[in-house]
Write a structure and sequence with these properties.
By secondary structure, the protein is of the alpha+beta class. The chain is about 40% helix and about 20% strand.
Length: about 260
C-alpha cells in the first residue's frame, strides 16, 4: 500500500518534507520504515534530496542528477514558517528587473547562507514589525502554496535593507515595474520598521511617483514625519558621492537622483 501511495504523492508534491511524506504513507516522521522508503526512492531516482528532510520529486523519464528543482518552492520548505522576501519576493511577484543570485527567506533561527546543489538560500531574521499574516500572502507554485511578503511589505523592507535589493539601480528599475501600491499599507510597514533614513528614501520615491502610483498626499505628509530630522545617508550613498533628496533629509546615491539608467533596455 505505501508504494501505491508514493507515486501520486510525488506527482502532487514537486517539493516535500519528510513529515509530509510520512503522513501520506501513514507513518510517524521518525519511523525507520520512512527512512527505508525514502532511501529506496532516492536510489531509484524518483526523488532528490535538497537538504536534510527536504526532497524534490523527479518526473518520470527525467534524470535525477539533471533535474532542476524550483528554487522558490524548495527554499520556502527549508525552514519551518519560511517566507520568501526582499528581492526574491519581487521576483516571485513579477516585479524584479533582473533575476537574483540567491533566494532570500525570512525565517526563525540563525541568519546566514545555505547552499544546495541548485541554488543559494539566504536566511534573514524577521525585520521589525514583521507579524504574519499581516504583510504575507501566498502564491501558487507548481500547485503548492508558497508564502511571500506582500508587495507593500517587500518594498518597505527593501528600503530598510537596501543591501538585499541588488543595488539602487536594480531597486529603482524594479520599482518602475510596479503599477500601483497600497500607500496606506506602505506607511504602516515603514512606521513599524522604525528606520528614519529608509522612510525618507521611501517617501522621496513615493512623492516622485505619486501620480503614477495613485498615492494620496496625506500619506506623503505622514511619511515626511518619519524621515530623519537632520540629513542622513541612505541606500548606500557615500560621502562626496551622493545627492540630497529635497524635503526628505536623506542623501541618496547620485544614480538614484539623476537616474542615468532610467529608460534603458
Amino acid at each position: 500500500m505505501p508504494q501505491l501511495i508514493s507515486a501520486p504523492f510525488f506527482s502532487a508534491h514537486p517539493v516535500f518534507t519528510r513529515p509530509e511524506y510520512a503522513k501520506a504513507v501513514g507513518r510517524r516522521p521518525d519511523d525507520r520504515v520512512v527512512t527505508a522508503m525514502l532511501s529506496q526512492h532516492l536510489r531509484a531516482g524518483n526523488i532528490r534530496r535538497i537538504a536534510r528532510g527536504v526532497f524534490a520529486s523527479v518526473p518520470k523519464h527525467a534524470a535525477a542528477d539533471q533535474w532542476i528543482v524550483d528554487r522558490f518552492l524548495a527554499a520556502s520548505r527549508l525552514r519551518r514558517d519560511g517566507v520568501i522576501a526582499y528581492h526574491s519576493a519581487l521576483e516571485l511577484l513579477g516585479y524584479a528587473y533582473t533575476d537574483g543570485q540567491e533566494v532570500q527567506v525570512i525565517a526563525p533561527g540563525e541568519p546566514g547562507a545555505f547552499e544546495t546543489a541548485d541554488f543559494l538560500c539566504r536566511f534573514v531574521k524577521p525585520p521589525h514589525g514583521f507579524a504574519p499574516p499581516d504583510g504575507v500572502t501566498t502564491v501558487d507554485r507548481l500547485g503548492l502554496d508558497v508564502r511571500v511578503t506582500t508587495l507593500e511589505r517587500t518594498i518597505a523592507d527593501l528600503f530598510d535593507r537596501y543591501d538585499l535589493a541588488g543595488g539602487p539601480e536594480e531597486l529603482f528599475n524594479s520599482l518602475d515595474l510596479v503599477p500601483r501600491v497600497d500607500a496606506t499599507a506602505l506607511l504602516r510597514f515603514a512606521r513599524a520598521l522604525g528606520n528614519a533614513a529608509a522612510s525618507g528614501a521611501l517617501g522621496y520615491w513615493l512623492e516622485r511617483e505619486k501620480t503614477r502610483l495613485g498615492v494620496p498626499e496625506s500619506v506623503i505628509d505622514q511619511l515626511r514625519l518619519l524621515a530623519p530630522p537632520r540629513p542622513r545617508y541612505a541606500l548606500g550613498a557615500k560621502p562626496n558621492a551622493g545627492r540630497s533628496a529635497k524635503g526628505w533629509n536623506v542623501i541618496l546615491p547620485i544614480e538614484v537622483i539623476e537616474r542615468p539608467f532610467e529608460g534603458l533596455p
